[in-house]
Design brief:
Mean pLDDT: 76
Helix content: 40-55%
GO molecular function: nucleic acid binding
Number of helices: 11
Order of helices and strands: HEEHEEHHHHHHHHH
Distance between the termini: 54 Å
Structural class: mainly alpha
Low-confidence stretches: 150-155, 164-175, 224-235
Number of strands: 4
Strand order of the largest sheet: 1-2
InterPro entries: Nucleotide-bd_a/b_plait_sf (IPR012677), RBD_domain_sf (IPR035979)
Protein name: RRM domain-containing protein
């Protein structure tokens, strides 16, 4: 990784790359302070990290290259758990945008092209479909999916989301972004974003907004009890 800003700390650089990919170490080139060697624990993580070539960190555009052609590992047909490296590249790019990092449209297009070339991980597809069916079964009844229900009009979808949240209490047990997103009026759009390779740059920006919005809502709901407690103590 080269082109690193003089204001970028080792911690900040580590956060930038380890946010999406498991790293084993990073080592500065003492002869050239703006260059760092970054090693990853998985070849697929290193391959995906190349997607960030041209990304911005602390106002400086990074050059991310590798002398090795990294291949993705053989997939395990399991749906109960996924790693960051199992996710679609476009989804990872959306997470970076939601976290506040700057990625140019050319970087986002590269993420889309990587998904189109590789396809969506079977492991991730199984995981996502299981969430869709599990949430649908709990909220709507046996053999129902959330995304299948949301093929109705937007008004009906919004009402259905309200029913899912208020009557079934799904939102109280939804502890991760994907589950909450599938149970929202945008459920079908979210499902399509993560399970198809036919995306546009705008789709990544829209998903980043949804992730950011959900994060802010979680932060607000977490902070409210603390504020109430403080008021009670003051009183």
């Amino acid at each position: 990784v080269s082109g690193i800003s003089k204001t970028t700390t080792e911690t900040h650089l580590h956060d930038f790359f380890s946010y999406a990919f498991p790293m084993s170490y990073q080592k500065y080139n003492h002869k050239n302070e703006d260059t760092v060697l970054v090693a990853f624990t998985k070849p697929s993580a290193a391959r995906t990290a190349l997607m960030l070539n041209g990304g911005s960190l602390d106002g400086s555009n990074l050059s991310v290259t590798s002398d090795v052609v990294h291949q993705d590992e053989p997939e395990e047909n399991k749906a109960e758990h996924i790693d960051q490296t199992d996710k679609p590249r476009a989804g990872i790019a959306a997470e970076y945008l939601a976290k506040g990092y700057t990625l140019s449209d050319s970087v986002l297009q590269r993420a889309i092209e990587m998904d189109q070339q590789k396809g969506i991980s079977k492991r991730f597809l199984n995981y996502f479909s299981a969430l869709d069916a599990g949430l649908g079964s709990k909220a709507l009844g046996p053999d129902q999916t959330i995304t299948g229900k949301f093929q109705e009009s937007l008004a009906a979808a919004t009402q259905q989301a309200k029913t899912v949240d208020e009557q079934k209490g799904v939102s109280k047990t939804a502890h991760e972004y994907y589950t909450k997103a599938l149970g929202s009026p945008f459920g079908k759009k979210v499902f399509e974003f993560y399970t198809t390779t036919s995306k546009q740059v705008l789709d990544i920006h829209e998903e980043a907004k949804r992730i950011s919005s959900t994060h802010k809502a979680n932060t607000t709901s977490t902070a409210e009890p603390a504020a109430t407690t403080a008021t009670e103590k003051t009183t």
